[in-house]
Every structure is written in C-alpha cells, then in structure tokens.
Amino acid sequence: MKKFINRVDDVLAEALDGFDAAHADIVRVHRDPTFVTRAASTRTGKVALISGGGSGHEPMHAGLVGMGMLDAACPGQVFTSPTSDQMLAAAQAVESGAGVLFIVKNYEGDVMNFEMAAEMHEGRHATVLTNDDVAVEDSLYTTGRRGVAGTVVVEKMVGAAAETGADLDALQALGQKVNGRTRSMGVALTSCTVPAAGKPTFELPESDIEMGVGIHGEPGRRRVKLMPADALAEEMIGAIAGDLRAPAGAEVLLLVNGFGGTPAMELYLMHGAARRQLEAKGLTVTRSLVGNYCTSLDMAGCSLTVTALDDELRGLWDAPVHTAALRW
Amino acid sequence: MKKFINRVDDVLAEALDGFDAAHADIVRVHRDPTFVTRAASTRTGKVALISGGGSGHEPMHAGLVGMGMLDAACPGQVFTSPTSDQMLAAAQAVESGAGVLFIVKNYEGDVMNFEMAAEMHEGRHATVLTNDDVAVEDSLYTTGRRGVAGTVVVEKMVGAAAETGADLDALQALGQKVNGRTRSMGVALTSCTVPAAGKPTFELPESDIEMGVGIHGEPGRRRVKLMPADALAEEMIGAIAGDLRAPAGAEVLLLVNGFGGTPAMELYLMHGAARRQLEAKGLTVTRSLVGNYCTSLDMAGCSLTVTALDDELRGLWDAPVHTAALRW
Description:
alpha/beta; 6-stranded mixed β-sheet; 8 helices; 24% strand
C-alpha cells in the first residue's frame, strides 16, 4: 500500500488537522467528539444543516461546510459511520433556534446513528435521506438504493434555501424534492485501498471494470470488459435517464464525479460523452459540475449524476456558495 | 491501460470539448489551431497573459483562464509542447493594445516554441520563465530547473496585478519576483500512463518512490523506499527551504499539489506534515492551497510549493479570481 500517511490509526486525525489549517477562514475542526463546523457561528433563526458519513469520500462532507451549504459535518473513520455522539455534539453546536436538518446518505449505519442522534437532540429536527444510486436496489451496506454523489446536489440546493431563511419543514420538503429528481450511477476502473486494510478492497483484472460500483467498492450491476467512454456513458446515462423519466425537452444538471484516482482530463472527456447521451434523449444540460466531490479514496473511476431542474432548483444551484470544495 | 477514452488520437480534442461545455460561462475553446480564451474579451488596455504547455497537467493551464488569471492558454498534445502557431493565434486573439506576457515553464520545447511565437507576434510582448523545481538542476526535457506547480502561483499573482492595470514591464518584473521567491519539489508513488504509449512511463516497484520526480515522470533525485509522510515532508521541505533561504519569521504560502491519482485525504495529511516542517524552520504559513493543480495524468504523488510572501504578494494572492479551477 502506497499512501501519504504516518500511522494507519492517525490518518483521519492528521488529515483533519491539515484540512483545518488549510481552510481556517471557512471551517473549524472540533475534537472529542470529532465534527466540523463553519468558522462563523450559524445565524440566529437559520435552520442548521448537518451531514456526515464515513471518511474516504472527501471533499464530501467536511469540504461542503460553509456559507450556502452545510453548517456542520461529522466524519466517521474510513468507510465507517460517524457515531451518534458526534452528530449530537454537532447539532448542539450549530442549532440556533430554527431547528436542525440532517442530510443522510442511505446506508444502514448512518441511518441508525443519525436516528439515535435525532432522538437524543432536544430541539426541532428533521431528516432527508438521499438514495440517488440507480445501480442496484439493495447492497452490501444498505437496504434500498445507496446515497452517493447526488447528495452534493441536495446539500447545495437545500443549503442555498436555508440561507434565505426557509423553515425546517420547507427545507425537508425541498431536500426530498431534489433527491427525487436526482439519479446517479458509478463505474470503477480499479479498486480502492482502505488504509487499515492495507490491500485493495476487491480484485479487478486489468481488462475488467465494475459497472454500478458503490462508493465503498461494493459490487455493482455486473463486471464487464473495459469499454470506450461513449459506450460507458451510454449504459450509465441509459440507466439514469430510464429511471428518472424526465420528459423530452427537460433541463438537467450533469455532475461528473471522480472517485479520487481519475484525472481531470478523463472526467472532462466523460462529461462530453455523457452530455451527448443526454442530448440524444432530448434532455438539455444547462448546468455542469466536473471534479472530485464524492470519492472512494484512491479508486480510479467516476459517477454520473443527473438532476432534473426547474426554475426553483436552477436558482438554488446558482446561488453563492463558499466552502473548501465548492465556491461561486 | 484503463482510462475513460474513446480513441487515443481523440483524447485531447474530446477532453477540451467536455471542458468547453462544462465551463461555457468562463472559457471558450478555439480550434485550428487549438487555444483557450476567456469567454469575455480582454479589456482594452489590459496586458494579455498567455501560458501553455503539454496537456496532462490539468487544470494547468486551461483551467486557470479567467478573471484574475490568464487570458489564454495553449494546450499541446499530452506531455508535448504546443506549437508556435497555437501561441501566435492565442496572442492575436487576446492582445488588446497593452501587450502580451507569455508565462512559460522551463522545458526546451515550450521555450523554443514560445520564442518563435513571440518573434512572429508583431505587438509588444515579454516573457516570464518559471523554474521553481529544486529537485534537479538539469533534466530529461530541459537545461536548468524545471517549471512546475509554482507556475500556478506566478499566474495567480501576475494575473491579479494585470487586472489592476499594471503595464507589461511591471508584470514581467513581478512574475520574475514571484518565481524567484517560489520553490517546489515532487514525489511519485506510482508512474503515470500516457494514453498514446498505453503503458506506464516508468517502472516503480511496490516498495519504492521517486523523490524529486518531474511532472512528466522524468527522474528525480533518487529512488528510495516508501517513507512515512512526515519523513517525506522533512526531505522535501528541507530541500525547498534550504534553497529558498527565507529568513526565520518569514511568511509563506504553502501549495500541496496532487499529481492526479492521490485523494484529498492524503493531500491534506501532507499539508499538515509540510506545515509542521516549515514551522520548525521558523516560517509561518499564512496562505494555503491544497488540491490537483499541476498534475501528471494519473500519477499518484504530490509536490510541495513554498512562496515567500510580502504585503504585495499576499494581496495579489487574495485578490478575486474566477477560473474553472480556482475561484475566490
């Protein structure tokens, strides 16, 4: 295993130290328990948005804390749910009188721990569960569809609405709306390597790829031979668009998300390929995001996410944001 | 070779198509010859900044075109200098009466072609050569030190000054000043794979790393066994700081640059490690940038860049920027 680390047990703590130091103007990393908040306090009367999940998906979620997105994030150990203690401490730190909205990716550990934290938290709270991955119905770590890179879109749009003073019920409904209009699917060219394991999570022969892979390296739909980018995009967009069922002429956002080991040149090439597939189905891409947003450590691969826009969602996407990973 | 591509010959053109579509609000990709400009025309009386070089280093340079940085970039084929035709066409497209400043990384092909373009260009022009890599004195593709990730710092600071109306001579002097106060060094954990070659550029056994690697996979100082992050940072910052010779108490910018295949978690961990080394030498890190900015295709590895700041350079770094890859 070749990684920039000192001791395996210290990876998360040391990475968070570096993150804290690099972005002291935007975030604050808290310890015992571990959570990340904005450097500035949550404005009184603003609903506090909190997300979290296993580490290894950076910049999700700590890199999405800041003006226009999250108020706090709870990073668990690598590919392991954060504890309810972390979530409760985060909620208590950022709650400012208007309640807390938890945005949770659909994995059993995360769902269970966020439920426990919500029960322990005495203030008003609600939850939005994301489950945008169309690859498989059930998976290694979850019942029902997995929440993946579409969560970035949910956090961006709900975050923008929270800044304008929307209340807890409205934000929960908005989060459910965005999730309901969002679909994703991923493909792995290589495995990832969890530091504590020291070896690749799964074996993938030099000629094969994992179509529909999960963001922890969980199995996808099928293992196939490497295909040209256009064929990959055709299969992935076919699955996404077939499930999304947006009417011809609909306007969509396209997120091409790298899994950590794939360079920008290939992601942009995939963006072009995916866009052509969407256009062939009569959909118009009016907003794009290309880069590493919901990663799987050092996995080579990418996911495609499509969100059906309307005037409300387009406006929320375009609203200003200032986080470590997303700024405009 | 596992990559998101269709045909090897089309990689660059298709990646640029995707880049163009994803960032139509910021850039415009031109063809025959190929170059990238801002979507908006260069303001009359503003010096036009142009850079370029082989592709495979994305987002450098096309992702650094936009308000506050470059006016145009010329992408060559992968790891191959752009032609003087590309540079000349870019210069003619963005020249607006105040002259053109070429920012060129020190590689023989780039230097030669930019010189030819400068001779053919009839307007006023000047050049800044970057050579921030302290790893080796001469290398596979150049005489003298290589220009690497420090070029991002030069382009950011000179770009900010150009927006305020600084003239050609002042910008050239500023670029030379920034380059003179900037040092970098890289390390490779793996090779990269050039699409047209179809196999890794060099062989690196599972236990070894290339200390001082170049951004095309050129040899560095020495091949050593994998070390902990702290030991890597100690050697790299030792070489950088020993060469930079900033006085104790000096204020510095620290850029931790990923080579394309290294995830954010490891880069942030390296940021913490490098920062500790700088602080032990009495230097204070007041500005940071962590991410993939000057890459080597899919290479796992990173480089560290340190720039000695003063009030002028800190202000130019903080000035607003709006490009595909850098925004604040």
